[in-house]
Amino acid sequence: MDDTQASEETLQARINTDNPEPRCACVLLLDTSASMAGEPIAELNQGIKAFAEALQDDPLARKRTEVAVISFGGEEPEIQSPFSEMGAFEPIELHAGGRTPMAASILAALDQLQERKRIYQEMGVEFFRPWLIVMTDGAPTDPPAVVDRAFTKLRDWEDKKHVNVFPVGVGANADMAFLARASATREPLRLHQAQLPQFFEWASANLAAVSSSGGHGSSDEEANRRVAAGEQVALTPPPVGWEIA
Amino acid sequence: MQEGWAVIGAAVRGASHIRDGKPRQDAVGWWQGDGLLIAACADGAGSAERSDEGSSMAVEAAIARARSVAARGAPVAREASVLVRQCMRAARAGVRRVAAEANARPGAFATTLILCVATDEAVCLAQIGDGVTCVRTLAGMSSPFRPQRGSYANETTFITTGRRLPHTMLASYAASDVDGFCLSSDGLKLIITKDARTGEPFEPFFADVFGFASRGGRSEGLAAFLEKVEDRTDDDKSLVVAVRSNELSGG
Fold first, then answer.
1. Distance CA A41, CA A32 (A)
2. B160 touches chain A (CB under 8 A)
3. Which residue in A19, A49, A73, A229 is a FRET match for B103, CA 20 to 30 A apart?
4. Rounded to whole angstroms, how far apart are CA atoms B66 and B90?
5. What is the ipTM of this complex?
6. CATH class in words for B5-245
7. In sequence order, what DSSP letters do the residues of A80-98 get, joined into one string?
8. CB atoms closer than 10 angstroms to residue A101
């Protein structure tokens, strides 16, 4: 090829299509105890559906976010949906009933995250710091020893930056003091049931933003602040009107 | 005496930046003269408000330092391994000065930086933060660095970070061993590395890129490729390619 032709040409280069997408795992840890019956559980189901749809509509987030749903309503935590790529995620209709084994379900969620991380490492997949959204309208009914173990472990994980924790109280009876123990860096949000759609909108938008930050979420002093706040990218502030306990 | 280098480069705005109306935060630049080549590639932090200015300033300041050293001809400073570190420090100082003048935190201008300085004796690379490098030697293609990351996929280090220059990865080659090198920001990582975690180059890509530059391909042709390639990230994309110009066909 002579120089004249070469100088006008567009580079054609072979690329690698086999590197896996980096992943962002998110556990939705949801209270489905008896007190959630009626409108709250309906709003919750609606919220999860909208959350899933928003992420599935985002071409990158649908490949990069992986969501698991664990509910606590009854005697034991229940894994409603194990981790799956968002593109393959199908929300399961949640039903309300029973007690509030929130602490046991926190431990179950951390086990799930641990296992997911192991799989990522084994498969050679890069990953973002996982999310744990814990939402309750009451207080844990677990034995005190389990509560202590769960919250101690969660705070330890948070300290070690193993997880971003988002504690959310729904309605007037949510025990915000308990929720405050879930995170040292993020104060629990108190939502009215009617604000659930807004919350899930916020969560999906921000999870999508995190998972698409192929480049850099953090920046020096700001990064230090955000790391202290457990955040890697600037999260859109929650909608106004939220009561922060 | 080695021949000179043919250098091409481009930085293009990623799909997400276009969609969100954000400026291009990647910057590239290079300069050669007086037997010296410097090439630079910077990636401004997505979360930092003025990182587009940060990355441009980093590239500009690094190149300015190399030019002033070349002009003075100070023999020690012209040593590639010394100079590449000086240029890195100059980039940090430049970005921090701009931040100070703007009465802003240096973090608002956060950027990564990859530099390569080539003299008649040596080719030296320096990197802070993530990004992809590829050096072609007689032994084949390799990346001297692993991407500098935290535990998570979107955490990295910036030249502005902390009270002094953060740890700089350095690699040095005898000039006679190197006939090409490539610097790239993080945006292309998934498609130009064989393994994104190690930064090991995907050789077919770099073979094509070096071939293109050797045939006299131009920066415009590189930019056109960057504009249309399926990058799988939406991020800004940038690339600087240098090959020995005695390889130019018919040259």
1. 7
2. yes
3. A229
4. 9
5. 0.88
6. alpha beta
7. EEEEEEGGG--PPPP---S
8. 27
Instruction: Flag if A13 and B129 touch (Cβ within 8 Å).
Output: no
Residue whose C-alpha is closest to residue A216's, from B193, B52, B219: B52
* Residue A238, pLDDT above cutoff 80: no
Residue range B17-36, pLDDT digits in tens = 787 788 889 999 999 998 89
Q: Which of residues 100-129 of A touch B (CB under 8 A)?
A: 124, 126-129
Per the CB < 8 Å rule, is B106 touching A220? Answer: yes
pLDDT-derived band of residue B46, with 50, 70 and 90 as boundaries? confident
- Is the CB of B194 inside 8 Å of chain A's CB atoms? yes
Chain A: closest CA distance from residue B66 (Å): 26
CA proximity to A230, closest of A112, A133, A131, A148 = A131
Contacts of B191 in chain A (CB under 8 A): 15-17, 19
Structural domains of chain A sorted by starting position, each given as residue range(s) with its CATH number in brackets: 28-128+197-240 (3.40.50)
Cβ distance of B192 and A16 shorter than 8 Å? yes
CA-based torsion, A232, B152, A160, A183: positive or negative: positive
Query: For chain B, which residues make up each domain, given as ranges?
Result: 5-245
B230 interfacial to chain A (CB closer than 8 Å): yes
- With b meaning 16 or more CB within 10 Å and e meaning fewer, what string describes A44-79? bbebbebbbebbbebebbbbbbbbbbbbbbbeebbb
* Residues B113-151 pLDDT 10s: 999 999 999 999 999 998 999 999 989 999 999 766 666
d(CA B54, CA B26): 9
Q: Nearest by CB to A3, which of B196, B229, B249?
A: B249
Question: What residues of chain A lie within 8 A of the CB of B162, using their CB?
Answer: 220
- Calculate mean pLDDT across residues A111-129: 90
